Amino acid sequence: MFGILEAGGTKMICAVGNRDLEVLDEIRIETRRPEETFAEIKKFFAKYKAEIESIAVGSFGPIEINPDCNDYGKILNTPKEGWKDFNIVKCLEEDFPVPIFVTTDVNASAYGEYKIGRGEGKASLAYYTVGTGVGGGVVQNGNFAGGISHPEMGHMIIKKDPRDTYQGGCACHSDCLEGLASGPNIGKRFKRSAESLDPNDEFWDIEASYLAQAAYNTSLMFSPAVIVFGGGVMQVEGLIEKVREKFKELMNGYIEIKDLESYIVRPKYDGKSATYGLLILAQEIL
Ligand code: ADP
Ligand code: ZN
């Protein structure tokens, strides 16, 4: 049996699963301060202490994910109350002396899609989540892109649409991709939730132009075999089609992509990509 933890900024999903990627038990809890939150997580895993062979964590960031580093598993510079410098690996190790793997939440989703989803049989995959934040990860020949840290593709600088009067809401960069295109920033723009906006609203054209720029930049930098867009915002009807259209305009034939419909795609396992990714990663570290 393997333990997995999807550690999000607003909620945590804690589960145990098996080699067949079946989830056998799980809990979902609200993310509070780390001590309280991890007390609950440990209580859950403790039920399976004798059976858990390894634990894989996909966490919000920034987080140290280099296993050779002393601070492996440490949450870095976050505004989230109490979380800065909290070390997830050290905390779990205290109670569970098994191999523990940690990566970003979006890398976990990317890996699930790479192994058994949209990237199955392909050499590489890029994954974006467009939700509470915007994040991205790249898997190439089985490895995550990264070096000094993990990618922060959600904070890339993009061109603002002239029709868009919103100044952008990223605390660090104002109008970076996340500052313009994340769910909460759509919400702030219209003073209503992103999901309550009509799918035919002109804004979705603007949103698509932002995501298409991300896909364009990603194609030029990594040339992945496929680009997956997941996260709550991507559920808007017609949005992925608009992203493909804008991408085609931007690319203007520079890189020839034969089948755009299978190049820019929604996840195969929407909402479950990270679960599968982590269950696979937990097995692979043994
Ligand atoms: P998280 O990023 O916390 O994992 P989600 O991917 O569900 O969670 O993202 C939540 C954000 O996505 C919220 O800002 C919400 O407004 C937006 N969202 C969720 N569902 C939809 C939808 N069907 N249409 C548009 N926006 C949505
Ligand atoms: Zn930013």
Characterization of this structure:
This protein has 8 helices and 10 strands. The strands form 2 sheets. It has a 5-stranded mixed beta sheet, sandwiched between helices. Strands 8-7-6-9-10 form a 5-stranded mixed beta sheet, with helices on both faces. With 286 residues, it is an alpha/beta fold. The model has no long low-confidence stretch (mean pLDDT 97). β4 (54-59), α2 (88-95) and β5 form a beta-alpha-beta unit. It binds adenosine-5'-diphosphate and zinc ion. Adenosine-5'-diphosphate is lined by residues 8, 10, 131-132, 183-184, 187, 193-195, 231-233, 235-236.
Percentage of residues assigned to helices: 25-40%
Largest sheet: 5 strands, mixed
Radius of gyration: 19 Å
Strand fraction equals 15-25%
How would you name the oligomeric state of the polypeptide chains in this document? single chain
> How many beta-strand elements?
10
Name the structural class. alpha/beta
> Which regions are unreliable across 5 or more consecutive residues at pLDDT < 50?
none
Q: Give the distance, in angstroms, between the N- and C-terminal Cα atoms.
A: 12 Å
